[in-house]
Model the fold of this input.
Amino acid sequence: MSATRFAFYGRVSTEDNQDPESSRAWQLTRSPALIEPRGGVIVAEFFDVDKSRSIPWQRRPHASALLAELRSPDREFEAVVIGEPHRAFYGNQYGLTFPLFEHFGVPLWVPEVGGRSTRRTRRTTW
Done:
């Protein structure tokens, strides 16, 4: 059985004097802990620095690149794992973004959920 190939998405804002490298490192550490026991491996990274979580995904450079990759039948990943949902999503962004993952058949995994996310996940877990 071959490994499921994942893209990792994370984000850090430097307005609170957060260190981008250490933030990336701890978010990236959480993701393999979730996916590796289930045969997952991270093959691509998308990480936005100095972008507020209130900015929509389409206006964050790496989040928008990830969304663009969803459309590609030749993308190098089959699923996406979020490093930390509070950094990735704000307000109604999960509800607006999740349908794109569903449409392109790309599962979205979140540590707080313990695995694959669903349309109802946002309201019930974080």
